[in-house]
């Protein structure tokens, strides 16, 4: 029995228990206190160092996370800044467009005519005399030889700047009055003398008025206005020429003895270089209504009706005129 | 003796390290550190037997007391009793099954706190209070069970290496 109890392992265990109890019981003694204190002293140093390392790592990680967040914010803000720059550009463009459209809204009405406003689509940048394309074609009622006008918002007048030469479904080609091949009969107000606008300066703001009678020399003066006239229209120009539209203002009269007529320089009513939208005047159906012919039709019908009634009243057989 | 020198350095290092870490990783007064020394002590005691288990437990416990400023010999006594108890299971259990390892660790953790409580009353050490102790027990139980899984794998590797070494030495 004793052998079973007093094994090597049991003896060692009893030794450990005894030692442990002894050590715990003497925990208040100087030696135990010193061991504990020295342990605490040594390991607290390690703990402090590790604590510092942990703290430094933690703050380092926090800093990295913060830098990462700041960078994310920075990238987002940069994107926003690009967006805002784009918005600002769009806003500026819209503002300009608004100004232009507001100017068009201020156009005075032209009674009897439908105003077709067309943007200038392309210019020949090398030479303003070569003409330009407008963004309305025969679907909008545009036809060749039509007068093309623009609005001078400073002087508040419409001015003729050219004529339509070619029409496409949704666009039309316009040749300005300053083109050497462009011809337009005009009348000078108030003297009433006529002339032919043919060509002008490269920039389009000067026009040359030729074939003005030498008799007009004493009656013309600088500042007189040249306006369109329908007196000398051809049959093909029917309904396309409109009278009394401003073309230009006299700025110089040249009496060249080698020529058989006066040559007058005009300042265009509208500076063609600043034009972005043009206006075409299309006669309304009411305006194009031929009242005289209409009355004649009514009268003849009435005459025939009266004739048939008289025939009926006199007992004669009713027989329409012209029938055999 | 050779087995003791395999286990003791491991437990000594772990005891010192976790003693230091217990003072650092603390949230609301509760140390979030598993008792890795206890896990290895239990797993190795089952494999190596009572003699190695109780000796390694006692010396490891002394170092832990030293590191954690506990009454010297208190943890040593607890760990020695745990090492001795699980050392008695040598040959009865194989450390090859993870579930046995998990059960052993759970029992050992409960035993550690139970013995600490009883010994504290017997030795009139008033530093242990019931509620914080139970809270610590719950947290340490969860952490220990989690750490047991990788520890189990490491133990198997060490035991295999040790067996190979001993076999090679015996052949020479």
Automatic annotation (TrEMBL), chain A:
Span of domain Rod shape-determining protein MreC beta-barrel core = 121-281
Biological process GO terms, please? regulation of cell shape
Instruction: Write down the Pfam families for this protein, in alphabetical order.
Output: MreC
**What does the UniProt keyword field contain?**
Cell shape, Coiled coil
- GO CC annotations, alphabetized: plasma membrane
Domain of life here? Bacteria
Record has Coiled coil as a keyword: yes
Coiled coil stretches, renumbered: 77-104
NCBIfam families linked to this entry? mreC
Name the protein family.
Belongs to the MreC family.
Task: Specify the protein name.
Answer: Cell shape-determining protein MreC
Annotated organism of origin: Entomospira nematocerorum
Q: What gene makes this protein?
A: mreC
Automatic annotation (TrEMBL), chain B:
Query: Subcellular localization, per the record?
Result: Cell membrane
Q: What is its main location?
A: membrane
Pfam families (alphabetical): MreD
Q: Where are the transmembrane segments?
A: 29-46, 67-89, 95-122, 134-154
Q: Which UniProt keywords apply?
A: Cell membrane, Cell shape, Membrane, Transmembrane, Transmembrane helix
An example of a Gene Ontology BP annotation on this entry? regulation of cell shape
Answer yes or no on keyword ATP-binding: no
CC terms in the record's Gene Ontology section: plasma membrane
Q: What is the membrane topology noted in the UniProt record heading this document?
A: Multi-pass membrane protein
Family per similarity comment:
Belongs to the MreD family.
Q: What is this protein called?
A: Rod shape-determining protein MreD
